[in-house]
From TrEMBL:
Enzyme Commission number: 2.1.1.171
Region (Disordered): 1-23
InterPro entries: RNA_MeTrfase_RsmD, SAM-dependent_MTases_sf
Keyword terms, alphabetized: Methyltransferase, Transferase
Protein name: Ribosomal RNA small subunit methyltransferase D
Classification via PANTHER family: METHYLTRANSFERASE
Gene3D superfamilies in the cross-refs: Vaccinia Virus protein VP39
One MF term in the entry's GO annotations: 16S rRNA (guanine(966)-N(2))-methyltransferase activity
Gene that produces this protein: rsmD
Species of origin: Halalkalibacter krulwichiae
Length: 183
């Protein structure tokens, strides 16, 4: 697993030890950023099920100003912090150990709006439609922002969820990427 492009291109990232997380493959990560960027001119990202932090770190490497990383797994938080230190990105990141629902409530209170939101939950615990609804209902997504959902290819997300519309879907083996924006 590595940073694909940008300032830290080629830098290897540590994976979360054990089998509780499923890292996004380099091929899928590259495809995601080709769909949504590939580069950014500032902005703030949210990596809600951060795992190793690979998606959020890739976003910073490609020009996102700051990323908020959230994961409930202690080993994941340690791995994110290790990878951020290796990339010298700590000053451009916030890292929180929390579950997704509580994290979204906390972010609503901060009145933040994100340029990019990455939702890559464990396939067995996906609640993407509900999380997308919360994100758009509480304006956690910037007016021109993008929600990137990585999910099992057996899961079919609706074309519209609240004020969000599915702009694009691509499947890579057992993984599907669905991109949502405001209607």
């Amino acid at each position: 697993m590595r940073v694909i492009s940008g300032d830290k291109r080629g830098l290897h990232l540590k994976a979360v030890p054990g089998s509780t997380t499923r890292p996004t493959t380099d091929k899928v990560k590259e495809s995601i950023f080709n769909m949504i960027g590939p580069y950014f001119n500032g902005g703030v990202a949210l990596d809600l099920y951060a795992g190793s932090g690979g998606l959020g770190i890739e976003a910073i490497s490609r020009g996102i100003e700051k990323t908020i990383f959230v994961d409930q797994n202690k080993k994941a938080i340690e791995t994110i912090n290790h990878n951020l230190a290796q990339c010298h990105f700590h000053e451009r990141a916030e890292v929180y150990r929390n579950d997704a629902a509580r994290a979204l409530k906390a972010l609503i209170k901060r009145e933040l709006a994100f340029t990019v939101i990455f939702l890559d939950p464990p396939y067995a615990k996906q609640n993407l439609a509900n999380e997308i609804s919360i994100i758009v209902d509480y304006h956690l997504l910037d007016e021109n922002g993008i929600i990137v959902c990585e999910h099992d290819s057996q899961v079919e997300l609706q074309e519209e969820i609240g004020q969000a519309i599915k702009e694009r879907t691509e499947t890579y083996g057992d993984t599907t990427i669905s991109i949502f924006t405001y209607k």
